[in-house]
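FIELD: query
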Amino acid sequence: MDAQENVDTLMRRLGEAARGASTAMAAASTAAKNAALLALAAEIRAESLVLQTENARDVAAAEAAGLAAPMVDRLRLTDKVIAQMAEGCEQVAALPDPIGEMNHLRRRPSGITVGQMRVPLGVFGMIYESRPNVTIDAASLAIKSGNAAILRGGSEAIHSNTALMTLVTRALGTNGLPIDAVQLVPTTDRAAVGRLLAMPEYVDVIIPRGGKSLVERVANEAKVPVIKHLDGNCHVYVDAAADLEMAVAVTDNAKTQKYSPCNAAESLLVHRAVANDFLTRIGTVFAAKGVEMRCDAESLALLKAALFHVAGVKLVEASEADWSCEYLAPVISIKLVDSLDEAIAHINRYGSHHTDAIVTRDHPNAMRFLREVDSASVMVNASTRFADGFEFGLGAEIGISTDKFHARGPVGLEGLTSMKWIVLGNGEGRS
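FIELD: result
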């Protein structure tokens, strides 16, 4: 049997096991699922030394291979990351169990009662890079939502993920749940990804979590639905009616609290009525933090005049490509607009439909922004950095979706479920 046949056999075996486990997980009690999650949290704390020993192998290999420093940092299982993984399991255990929940029950003239019930999706496949803590995020959400999962982490984290999966399997087995409910693809062969994307008989949905090239490959090759987002070109719009002190605080946090996440602001729109005052304030903040500002002609002139005395300020004329760029770096595009209408039109044209915010004291403008901006998360007077499953109270997050069907925005427990119709009767027949 050649290497490709070996991968095919492996993936078929994982798929068959996951499909079988999904039936048992759909019927599992809330008590059993919560017990497994709490056991997993305890295992993570108890085995922290083992986890860090295996993680050190991955980190050493990544450094030797010349992996970029930010990627190596994401790979590390520090004491803080291990504590957060354990706490995440406990938080998911504390969340209400969505499975079996019945909604919108209503009596029909025929005598039947019609409604909907929340049920698991079945089996999800997840493909992700670098961060081994995602293994625990995915496992905990799979367990609580009554799904089965096949996880394929990055080759750079294989030892860390294998050690974590040992704990997941142990927590499942000791609490009466099928050990195949969460499985890790045990090979780094890239062919395994291709097979995972093309097994609709076993996998109901695929979730990619990583860079744009990974997500594009998954979206192009998958034979099953994909929950995904490609870019995070997030905007902050400072309205004519903004509290400028608040606007500076929100914009600063949205851009500089952390540069690499997909919910960091990449574009700043400012109403001309407040441009001179606001740009002077935020420009001073950005200059002090080394943020490069790529500006339209008018904002460039204003900032040059306001910051002429500031050493090292980074001001550049924006190109057309800047309006749709996700920098993931200390760079932001800046444009002046004449109206709320122009701001909304710009966001809907150039944005990535991820997360966008308005800063305003005008309630009608805020409500229009919420209704008309076509993004998965839309905010009023708050940083775009809040677009996160934990911050939204969803517990762990499986990812962010900018699709319009099924799940949209941060995907937590409910995003891993669907609704089916149910009918309750007492012997009625249709006339």
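FIELD: remark
The mean pLDDT is 95.
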